[in-house]
Structure formats: structure tokens, C-alpha cells
Amino acid sequence: MTKMKYIILTLGLLVVNFAFGQHLYPEKYDECKLSKFCLDCGDTKAEPPQDFVSDFLSNLNEKSLMKIKGSITVQILVDSTGKACLLSAKNETNVKSKKLKLHDGISNTKTWSPAITKGKAEQASVSLLLIFQDGQLLIKRKEFDFKNQSNMKSVGTPDVKGSKESQLSESWTVINQQNSKLPWDMSRVAFTDSTNSLWFGTDNGVVKMENGKMEVFDSKNSALKPTSYNKNRTSSIRGGAVDQLNNKWFFGGYEVYKYDNKNWTVFDSLNSPVSWMRKIYIDKKNNVFLTSSKGVVKYDGNDWTIIDTSNTKLPSNKVSGVFVDSKERLWIGTYDGNIRMDSDNIVEYNNSESPLKEGAITDMYEDKKGNLWFDLYNNDDKSKGGMFVLRTNGKWESLKPKKSDLFTKNDINDFLLDEDKNELWIALNSVGLIKYDIGNDKWETYTTENSKVPSIHVMQLTKDGDGTIWGATFAGLIKLKAE
Fold first, then answer.
1. Would the pLDDT of 298 be above 70?
2. Is the pTM of the predicted complex or chain greater than 0.85?
3. The CATH number of domain 165-480 is 3.40.50.720
4. Which residue, 79, 61, 177, 74, is CA-closest to 122?
5. Less crowded by CB within 10 Å, the N or C end of the chain?
């Protein structure tokens, strides 16, 4: 146990309303062997061992404990044998989780008492609020109240101050449960199909919007699965895209869904190699790519294949993004490096003199001139991540406003290049929306404080056939107002 005079354990209940999700909090850990589990369920709840506090502290960095202040919310997966594993966390202290050794502190604790339902042990996640203050640790257990939920949204306070309202050139319209048939305000998916219909994925179903009218697909009228804790709720839709045949693809939980405008097809572990998916990308040849912590799954319409460290020079199976360019080169980003698979060789970038040495590819786009646009992620040093362009002449450009730390603290959720207006839109996590007028080199930051952008979490952007920008946020949908 640590030599500090730390710790008094006070275990209390903190009742909260929260949407179901495998990872509840922004810091995600992939070491847990993910399989289906429920949120703090069981006739008998999972419980920590009696010496949990001393065990937990002994695995942390002692120097960090000397100065830590603030709170950390942790989501702990406890399997049927009582093994604990850190699944996600929200760190609001003055010490980074990695330096604190938070993962070791949770995952190396002794055996828990697993959740029990009808006499059988089951996997469940438990959330604890850890409050570090004045040399003491206060621990509260979060209890999830699903019965009283009718909606869920997250507005939040932006990490970065937005532009002055007088400097903003655009305004937004918000679409939510209060003014539409939207089944849930917390939304993560937005894309436009070939008939100019808009599709949105929410934490309670899929929405099709055509000529301003909404049609909702949920667990009652489609193949979408209900949540395990409430059969009247539909599982969160976390990703979506449209293919070249205008089939709509979505994923949530352990299922991938294909909708051909009449029928739904479900792909799961029984009829495919899909597992817990992170992103979906579909190339111009209609190949569907799904990223995960186990590599890339590819579906060509008939057969499934897996791209991982066993059959390529992939630096890691923890894949962050994929893209196929006009030269049919497959770019794959992982959290340990990036590669490019050409027709006859593989290019590795870990030793290259380019931004690809420092950041993981999460999203890419190729413009009409052949320039490649990258969103790169670096968890350890966010200043090395952000937006980059690889020009056709082979030169790299970093896209950042001058004398600003806008991209040094926060990750990019999505970006959209509007080539017609020569504008770049960036959804910056925990901030809102960034507009970059490329021709005039002008940056604008839209937040919940200076605009009608309703949440600091803007997840995905799309442009419809009329040129209007739309977005999915954690507090409803947004639509760029017409000029």
C-alpha cells in the first residue's frame, strides 16, 4: 500500500440517467476482452473486494498521488469470474491517466464478486466516481436509472472559447425531440444517400428525412436490436454509411445492419467476422470496411476477409481508420502507426519524415484535384495531431489557425470539405464546430456559448444535394441556415 496518508473509502450511491453504451466515457481502453455485458445489472450487483482501496492505490504512481486533485469517473468491466478491467474513464484531474497508471490501478486489483442473476454469474460494468481531495479519496458508485429515461442529451461547456458572435458568418437550425419526430436527441450518424435523402443514427433508432419529413426505424419496425435493459429502447447506432447501390449500412453493439430500402440484413458473430466496430467506410467498388480492435473486416458483397497483423505489416490490430484513394491504394491507420497497401507492396510510415509518423489516420478525403486530406490522432501529444493535406506534388501542409491552441487539446470527430465553397468544416470534440474559409484563411469557432450549436459533441457531418450542411450532435441535429 502507498506510504501516503491517503485513503478513506466512502462508498455511496449516485443515481444518474445515462444512455447505454459499451464505452461510457471519452478515454477508451481496449485491453478488456469485449463480449456482451450489461450496465450494472444483476439480482446481486458486482462488488469490489474488501481491500479494493489499498489494492487500487498500491498500483498507482505514488508521485502522482502526491499532487492529484479533482475527480475521475471509471467504467469497470467485471467478468463472470470477478476479473476487473478498466473499460473507459473521464479524467477531470490535474494528472493524466497514463501518468497516474489508472489502468494498472483498476485492472490489477484483486477478484471482485461478480454480478449474479438467477443464480448465474454474468458480465457487468460498474461505474465509480473517484474524488481526490486534501489527501483523501472519496468513492461513489454510480447507479443507473433507466426507468425514468425518455430522452438523453449532452450539451456541455466548451474547452475552447468560440469566436465573437459578430465574427461568425453562419447560423444554425436545431432539430430535436421537441420540434420534430426525432426519437432521441443524442445522435452520432449523419449521411446523405444517392436520392438526396438524409439518414441519421441516434441512441434510439435510425431516422430517414426526405423532403423535410421523418421516418423512424427502431426495434419495433426493423431488424435493429433493442437494448438489453429496456426492450422499448433501440440500441445506439454508432456508425453509418451508404454504398454505391444506395444500400444503407449501420452498426451498433455487436451487429452490423444493411438496409436495401425494403429489407434489413443483420451481420453478427454467427454469420460474419464482425465484432465491436469502431468505424465504417465504403469505397467506390462497393467494398465495405469495418474497423475494430481486432483489425479491419472487409466485405465485398459476397465474402468476408480480415486484415490484421497475422497477414499484413499492420503495426497493430487497433485500427483507427481506413481509406481507398483514386489510385486504389488502401490506407490503414492504427494507434501504433500507419501503412499504405498498394497493388504490389506495403508502405510503412513509422520511420517516415511526414505527419504520418506522429498521428494515426482516423479519417481521409480526396478532393477533385487529387489532394489527400487527413485527420490524424495522437493521444500522447495532441499538438502533433489535427488536420493535414498531402498535395499532389508530395508536399504536406498542416491546417491550424495562427497563434492558437485550437487543435492541441481536443480530438477531431469528423471533417467535411465543401469544395463548392472552398470551406472546411471540422467537428472538434468538446468544443463544437470549426469553419475554415480556405481562400481567405479565416477561422471561425462555433460553440454552445456563441451560437445555436446545441452540444460540444458534434459527431458526424454531411452535405445534401442542395449544398446544405447537416450534423449529428449529442443534443439533436443541426442544419446550416440558407443564406
1. yes
2. no
3. no
4. 79
5. C
